Amino acid sequence: MTQYTSRRYPLGVTLVDGGANVAVYSEHADAVTVCVFAEDGTETRTELTKRTAHVFHGIVPDLTPGTRYGLRVSGPWDPASGLRFNDAKVLLDPHARAVTGAFDTGQAVFGHDLNQPDQLDPTDGAGHVALSVVVDPHSFDWGDDRPPATPLAETIVYETHVKGFTKQLDAVPEDVRGTYAGLAHPAAIEKLTSLGVTAVELMPVHQFLQDAHLEEKGLRNYWGYNTIGFFAPHNEYSASGAAGQQVDEFKGMVKALHAAGLEVILDVVYNHTAEGNDLGPTLSLKGIDNPSYYRLVEDDPEHYFDTTGTGNSVNVSHPAALQLIMDSLRYWVTEMHVDGFRFDLATTLTRQGGDASVHSAFLALVQQDPTLAQVKLIAEPWDTAGYQVGGFPAGWSEWNGKFRDDVRDFWRGTDGMLATLSQRVLGSPDVYEESRRSPLSSVNFVTAHDGFTLADLTSYDQKHNEANGEDNADGESDNRSSNNGVEGPTDDQAILARRTRQRKNFLATVLLSAGVPMILGGDELGRTQQGNNNAYCQDDEISWFDWAAEDTELREFTTRLIRLRREEPALRPDWYRQGPETDAPDTVHIVRADGELFADEDWDVADAKSIAFQLRHTGADSFLLLLNASENGVEFVLPETNGAAWELELSSDPELSLEHPETLIVGHTAFALLRSKAE
Questions:
Q1: Cβ count within 10 A of residue 600
Q2: Catalytic residue IDs
Q3: Nearest to residue 403, comparing CAs of 455, 433, 445?
Q4: What is the 3-class SS of 576-612, one letter each residue?
């Protein structure tokens, strides 16, 4: 048998003959011990006796796939200096590929041992705490799996939730609903492929923690922005078991989605962890090397620098924290075959010394990484301390909050929106063109998990978050929404018709604008959260997709829009150039309703709420997009075409008819899309 000498890299557990190499980074610890737990709770300890460049490492015998283990880390208990070592705690391995068990949120999470380091671990090794699990990286057969590699210009993102998408989908077997296997089921995949989207953006699937304050109210963390394991698929989403089986089940889901031509993008939370502030739990990084992994207040290191609103921020100025993030990203691409990432509160990851910087170490590392160069990178370009839309480098796309806000304002009839709205339809050149970034830098959306669904955006003036148990004080109050006449449900047919009209307007604006469109999962069904715009703690029917209540007409409309975008190059430009005389392949001609070009003073007319975009692509059909946000019908003069006469393709105005070749009256708060076939 080969005698292995322990190594400091890779970090975490690496299987070797007779056991495993285990490596744990800690600059400030005195000792690290690996604790193996048998099924009866018996604990066997092996100290990592080698130390190289702040990495404790050693060979731990008899570690095999399925073995449960944790870490005990010894060192000074000196919170005033930022040191929080306590070897009474069993800690998760930051590089663990799987996590089994659940935390006792009454003790193990908000542990009363925080100020009494000599107190015994409340779990006492009995298995009541979540533990790391050894995983065999070679147990899954990927076969001929290949990433779809959909070009960004052809991408249509569908933001959804592993559990919520299938929890109430009758065509999926009950025992796998709400799991990775459920999302991989043919009935679930058919819902996605028939709609026509090209990528699913999954809300957090990294192992996350249930919050004690929510469980005390009988609620649960549904969204999952409470990460505690950057490598481990969340175990509650596994139908096959939580002792490592979740890894292969996740891989099976990715493989099935790929086979259907669907990319998998993960919503990842590297900006903070579930360990919270100085009063929060000690679960992993806090007890392994608190000052290396978290940003501490410089002159008061007992407390945490926080730009996330969660109590802590990961210390991206430190090489160990950056290595953890980069190792995780590469793992999900190389081992789990995902196709991209959406970075929650990405601005926090760019804060060097507190300030956001396009030249940050994090962005520099991502830029030069050959693995990450092959996948999609999407930033949520803000955090609690700053708004950085347009501030990320080339190669990144961004959730464009300006698109969301401005399109909402336009369609609810806000005065003076034409100039701004035109920028959003063109891919926000006012945001990206100065830095020579294309419209594909903009991920266009009007709804996302955080906020109203599309149905609620058109049904409520105010948030209704009472079910969250915070007296309706949580969630955004400025939603730029409209109930269209009645707050909430109604039987008034005129109001219902107006709401349907507006939902189609929003969907059309997202799917017919330059950039990368993103749809909130369920919007095509008319999914409602009953006015709750912060349903992070609603792991129930408020959040789960209600397939039985599907608005089939709205789904068919959305499907048709998506098909048009995918089939017609004029509707998915890499880069629009304005004016009909340019020789660029994609051009746009913007005119007033009377067919004349906009003069400078026209953009500032407060009550002007109609606009037309003539969209062209060399050698393909041309389109005319007419938008009317006014409360009355508007007659548009139709421009001349280079091909056949204009034909009505799609509209939110059910009474629209193209009777005259020169003009078209578009009814109140409606859009129309016309086509001119190429010669």
A1: 7
A2: 344, 380
A3: 445
A4: CEECCCCCCCEEEEEECCCCCECCHHHHHCCCCCEEE
Tell me whether strands 263-268 and 340-343 are parallel, antiparallel or unpaired.
parallel
Task: State the number of CA atoms in the 13 A half-sphere of 483 facing the CB.
Answer: 14
Q: For residue range 209-246, list pLDDT tens digits in order.
A: 999 999 999 999 999 999 999 999 999 999 999 999 99
How far, rounded to the nearest angstrom, does the alpha carbon of residue 636 sit from its chain's CA centroid? 39
Q: What is the CATH number of the domain that holds 579?
A: 2.60.40.1180
Q: Do both 345 and 395 map to the same domain?
A: yes
- Where the chain has pLDDT below 50, the residues are 1, 107-128
Query: Where in 305-405 does DSSP place strands (E)?
Result: 340-343, 351-352, 355-356, 376-379, 382-383, 386-387, 397-399
Q: How far, in Å, CA of 152 to CA of 131, rounded?
A: 39
CA atoms of 676 and 580, how far apart (whole Å): 15
d(CA 453, CA 529): 7
The three-point CA angle 397-401-406 to 5° equals: 125
Contact 326, 282 (CB under 8 A): no
* pLDDT attached to residue 659: 84
pLDDT attached to residue 216: 94
In terms of domains, do 396 and 276 share one? yes
Residue 521's nearest CA partner among 454, 473, 575, 569 is: 454
* Total number of domains in the chain: 3
pLDDT at res. 576? 75
Total Cβ atoms within 10 A of residue 136: 14
Rounded distance between C-alpha atoms, residue 585 and residue 617, angstroms: 5
User: Could you give the 3-state DSSP secondary structure of residue 441?
Assistant: helix
DSSP annotation of 107: I
Tell me the longest C-alpha to C-alpha distance in the chain.
Answer: 86
Q: Which residues of 206-241 are buried (b: 16+ CB within 10 A; e: fewer)?
A: bbbbbbbebeeeebebbbbbbbbbbbbbbbbbbbbe
Residue length, the chain?
679
**The domain spanning residue 30 has which CATH number?**
2.60.40.10
What pLDDT was estimated at residue 580?
59
CA atoms within a 13 Å half-sphere pointing along the CA-CB vector of 193: 15
Range of the domain at 40: 12-133
Residues 6+ apart with CB under 8 A from 172: 166, 182, 185, 187, 188
CA–CA distance, 328 with 322 (Å, rounded to integer): 10
Distances (CA, A) of 112 to 25, 115, 275, 283: 26, 7, 14, 13
Q: What is the CATH number of the domain that holds 286?
A: 3.20.20.80
Residue identified by tokens 């963390």 is: 221
The span from the CA of 191 to the CA of 552, in Å, is 12
Give me 516's structure tokens. Answer: 């990368």
Is the domain of 511 the same as that of 635? no
Question: What pLDDT score does 135 carry?
Answer: 97
Determine the residue type at 309.
G
